[in-house]
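lol forgot to send this yesterday, sorry. struct tokens for the thing we talked abt
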């Protein structure tokens, strides 16, 4: 659990970057810090591992005041991932991932086991990448290695500052999905910075929206979309809130609500599986001239058809928006 208690940061020159922020991030959940550039997200994150000193207030991690801990110790307990992954160019992938275990004096076998485990976890073949250098990897692969490295010493807490910000949209969607799968397995307490409402909705158990260093609203995505507390939140969340809330639901949700139509056509250009979000399904239907999607199961066997009308009806009846 991470607790921010009246946290304020004033930089030199009297710049108030964070203004009396209080919020609690429960154990094993993801809180997304969301807001426009300059609203204090990075500052707030970096106060947790004391890369930025706190001006006023307290931050506790699992009940311990961060001020009372040794900085080096603290940073070893907290994984940190940044947009430009921060891999060391002159170290191999294995050396990069095992930096902290190495500092902690783990023996070689344990370090190697950990490397193999983490690479598997982020979907990369350990032996294929072990001796390569960061510049030999794609952006998406580097970012995965960055995540593996942050998790190396199994820290209970992870700070992630726009970790997927530099990736192109398709790879980004893919890695977001993978990240959520990993999180289901590892259940870390995560602070995740983003300026993208769609990403926040997808990734966050809770979303904190900031404006000029002040916390505007801290709620679950569904709450935030349904009941923005003020004009700023409403504008930030966007006018197409009902469309955005579609990211929260999957094809499986739709089928639970509506009896599926049997498959009539013999061929489909568009296929989705049960885990596809309705937002993605909708986007596919908008982008193509097709009228329906074929829903397939894990073995690629057809289950039913879904039309754009089905999605629209679900949207109208299941998303409470103004
Ligand atoms: N080291 C610094 N010294 C002075 N001002 C800073 C420093 N770092 C950030 N700021 C200012 O603090 C505010 C918040 O910045 P930041 O936390 O980086 O916001 P965000 O991550 O939301 O874009 C901005 O006005 C920024 O210019
Ligand atoms: Mg930032």
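and heres what i got for the seq, position by position
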């Amino acid at each position: 659990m991470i607790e921010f208690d009246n946290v304020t940061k004033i930089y030199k020159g009297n710049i108030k970057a964070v203004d009396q922020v209080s919020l609690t991030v429960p154990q094993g959940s993801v809180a997304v810090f969301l807001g426009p550039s300059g609203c204090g997200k990075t500052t707030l994150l970096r106060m947790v591992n004391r890369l930025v000193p706190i001006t006023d207030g307290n931050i506790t991690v699992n009940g311990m005041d961060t001020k009372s801990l040794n900085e080096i110790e603290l940073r070893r307990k907290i994984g940190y991932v940044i947009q430009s992954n921060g891999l060391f160019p002159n170290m191999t992938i294995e050396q990069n991932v095992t930096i902290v275990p190495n500092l902690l004096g783990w023996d070689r076998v344990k370090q190697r086991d950990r490397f193999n485990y983490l690479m598997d976890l982020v979907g990369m073949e350990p032996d294929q990448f072990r001796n390569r250098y960061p510049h030999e990897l794609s952006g998406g692969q580097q970012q995965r290695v960055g995540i593996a490295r942050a998790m190396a010493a199994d820290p209970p807490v992870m700070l992630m500052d726009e970790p997927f910000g530099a990736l192109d949209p398709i790879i980004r969607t893919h890695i977001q999905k993978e990240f959520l799968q990993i999180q289901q397995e590892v259940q870390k307490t995560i602070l995740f910075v983003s300026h993208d409402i769609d990403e926040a909705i997808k990734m966050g158990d809770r979303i904190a929206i900031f404006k000029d260093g002040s916390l505007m609203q801290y709620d679950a995505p569904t709450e935030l979309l349904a009941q923005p507390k003020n004009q700023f939140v409403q504008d930030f969340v966007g006018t197409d809130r009902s469309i955005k809330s579609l990211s929260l639901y999957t094809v499986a949700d739709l089928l639970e609500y509506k009896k599926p139509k049997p498959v009539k056509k013999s061929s489909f250009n568009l296929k989705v599986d049960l885990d596809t979000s309705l937002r993605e399904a909708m986007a596919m239907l908008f982008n193509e001239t097709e009228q329906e999607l074929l829903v397939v199961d894990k073995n690629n066997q057809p289950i039913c058809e879904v039309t754009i009308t089905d999605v629209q009806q679900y949207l109208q009846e299941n998303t409470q928006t103004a």
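The mean pLDDT is 88. anyway ping me if u want another try
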